[in-house]
Design brief:
38% of the residues lie in helices and 18% in strands. It has 125 residues and is α+β, with helices and mostly antiparallel strands. It folds into two domains: 35 residues; 77 residues, Alpha-Beta Plaits (2-Layer Sandwich), CATH 3.30.70.100. The radius of gyration is 19 Å and the shape is elongated.
Length: 125
């Protein structure tokens, strides 16, 4: 009897493993689509125009498409230039005006992710 239960458990694990692998093949590890998401380019890329900086920890990212979604959501805000580091699970954000943490959080949440703690805000000298 125990051999049958072990075999059933192994079969279930194999099925879930194959499904997960097929999702990754079809569009990244989150399985949300086949093509890579295009980056929203910031028009003003002069660092001197962005006197404020902040780092946001971002939860829920599992692949580069997730990171691109977060980056695009932040870059779509006026006066914001963001880059996301998936390995660190954080966004480095440059801003033209003092940071509005609620607006940054809302943009990340609208993209389907979350900011687990307070932003580490700082201003360039």
């Amino acid at each position: 009897m125990s051999t049958v239960l072990i075999c059933l458990a192994l079969a279930a694990l194999a099925v879930f493993g194959v499904r997960s692998f097929s999702k990754r093949l079809s569009g990244g590890c989150c399985g949300t689509g086949g093509e890579a998401i295009r980056r929203v380019r910031v028009q003003d890329r002069d660092k001197k125009h962005y006197p404020y900086e902040t780092r946001l920890a971002v939860g829920g990212m599992t692949c580069r498409n997730c990171a691109r979604r977060v980056e695009n959501a932040l870059n779509s805000l006026d006066g914001v230039w963001a880059r996301v580091d998936l390995s660190k699970k954080e966004a480095f954000v440059r801003l033209k005006s003092p940071p509005d943490e609620n607006a940054l959080r809302a943009a990340v949440q609208k993209a389907g992710y979350w900011v687990p703690g307070p932003a580490a805000l700082r201003r360039e000298p």
